[in-house]
Specification:
mainly alpha; two-stranded antiparallel sheet
């Protein structure tokens, strides 16, 4: 399947990305290869195969980094003291755009 340049422009716009005309042509071709691969996967017979929620679940892999414990705080000062970084009475978090 071929992906038109207009489709690549549309996807770039949705992702809020800007590309030069040459880059758009390059990514349209790469996008076409991804779509072709997905079409191949869609042709596979998956009857009787249980859906998975984690690719490594059956290998015993556990991606949790720590126990998720509930902690009761007595007040705002306790919460602020537990924060890794703070600015006055505010918790500093990474900027999300």
């Amino acid at each position: 399947m071929s992906v038109k340049r207009e489709t690549a422009e549309y996807v770039a716009e949705l992702a809020r990305l800007r590309f030069s005309p040459a880059e758009l042509d390059k990514y349209a071709a790469k996008f076409a290869r991804v779509v072709e691969y997905i079409e191949k996967l869609g042709k596979l017979d998956t009857k009787g195969i249980e859906p998975t929620t984690h690719a490594l679940k059956e290998s015993g892999h556990d991606s949790r980094l720590r126990e998720d414990d509930c902690v009761k705080f007595k007040g705002v000062d306790d919460i602020l003291n537990a924060a890794p970084e703070k600015d006055g009475r505010m918790v500093v978090v990474p900027k999300v755009i």
